Structures
1.
Amino acid sequence: MANEKILIVEDEADILELLRYNLNREGYHVREAATGEAALDLIRKDVPDLVLLDLMLPKIDGLEVCRQVRGNGENKALPIIMLTAKGEEADIVTGLELGADDYVTKPFSPRVLLARIRAVLRRQSMEIPGDTESLQLHNLAIHPGRHEVLVDGEQVTLTRTEFQVLHYLARRPGWVFTRYQIVDAVHGDDYAVTERSVDVQIVGLRKKLGTAGKYIETVRGVGYRFGAV
């Protein structure tokens, strides 16, 4: 049985009850917040192991909650899964760019959601796969041990998944990887994901890396590679 603490941020009573029931049955310790303000207050008092965050909240919405959590250095690695009825691509992209680890659209299958939760928690507890040596490529420096990325000497803040994708590509400059190879390397073979999810991570990476973003190259019809040095 699991024993991690999960904070549910949801203002719809029926969905909250569904989430509470399924999480309690799996052994998770559940806390609840119906507003963004209450969620931020609970996180400040006692950081959970994972947050299930609805986007459509009164006053402070889920995106702003995510932004504030990621802006706090102590909580920037706190796993966040977005729950949203907003299936538009723009909302999903915005949430992931703000640092959410995953998203699930309503209506959702409790079994799928639980699988996503287990996958995110498992990634959180795992070391970055592969070697731990620092990499210096073009104007980009990657330090796996410190989970740090520098572009022209300036630190760039990446989510855990973004860092793992970048590190996976950069360890083999010039090699081409399919989207599903990237997914398997970063998330494991059992992770339920679409090709679009990988594309979203790449878009976010390129934007955050600035001038170094151009080294993540698209190979049309195949996948992605880090430009050969």
Note: The radius of gyration is 18 Å.
2.
Amino acid sequence: MINIPMTPDGPDMDTIRELVTNDPSVKAIWCVPKYLNPSGESYSEETVKALASMPTAAKDFRIMWDNAYAVHHIADGLATLTDIMDACDKADNPDRPVVFGSTSKLTLAGAGVAMLASSLVNIKDHLEKIGHGTIGPDKINQLRHVRFFKNMDGILEHMKKHAESIAPKFAAVDEAL
């Protein structure tokens, strides 16, 4: 694991480029692109496009796109994030992104419904590997989530309640620091 310095636009792309273009043993980068800790910024469009299009020494280089905070909005308005899969497609690197997230931070930790999005090549590889480790998804838990949230509006309304609860706590920490 190599720590990369962060900027208000995301990871320091000069450092990343230096590492990935010169060393074929660097196979991936792990990104949490939205609401970076502790500052709360999200990756800029320029950073997303640079990650998608940069040359890499490893032909099988992957971007592990952990969109853990996709709908976690504390301040007014929703932070936007450039679509990494679209950016990689446009840069002719369709197999580069592996996008994932879950509802664990929306409902109960460990009880969330996970998702994975990627190219057909990556999905096939993933299914071949996970097929030996699980008999399938927890369909009852999936149904619980559908009944609880109903739709995207239900998710956003639920997350407003989270924001109302946690925003004062964030403000108190900011004030204390």
Note: The mean pLDDT is 90.
3.
Amino acid sequence: MPPPEASDHEGTEPGEGDPEARGSYGIMQLVQNPSKDTLGEAATLTGISEERLKTDRARNIRGGAALLVKIQGDAKPKDLNEWYAAVAEYGDGPLYAEQVYEVLKKGASAKASAGEKVTLEAQEGVEPQQTLTAQAASQTADYSGATWYGASSYNYTAANRPSSNPINKIIHVIQGSWSSAINAFQNSSHQASAHYTVRSSNGFIGQSVREKDIAWHAGNWPYN
């Protein structure tokens, strides 16, 4: 569990939080910022304080589970595949759900910082829906090592920069998950994008904007 201050969004007083931070907390990425408050909603659903949800691992997981159950509604199917839509809504898009279901299908194992080993057995019968995989395969990325996930045309400027122009690399850190960034770039109201996004866990690269076009990544036109 990272400390809450590592993710705090800019507060009401000068010097509070980070204006670039998403305001997402714990394993379940409970969010609290001016546009979203799943942290507060989880506190209401569970009766656990926001502070405990931010700092206590077990309670953070319980808060995320409560949110997922609320999204799912009255039906609580035993078939995990029937929770796909709720998982997609929890993670702000189907790309998040695809990643979750890939892990459920294959299983996973990792060591926590305190030395505990956490293992998830492969879940029989679980299948990603593959809709995004098919979409990605329909277009080729500029860089051969990347997979194409096109951003909304409202989130970048179409251009035609000559291939001989040198590219000055500007690298940002994602405040949130890899899939949350790809989903945000595909959301027409987000007004931001980047050319490439690298997944930290395995180096997988998604391309959202053509290299000849201008991504809106810097909030500053000359830098873009």
Note: DSSP finds seven helices and ten strands in the chain.
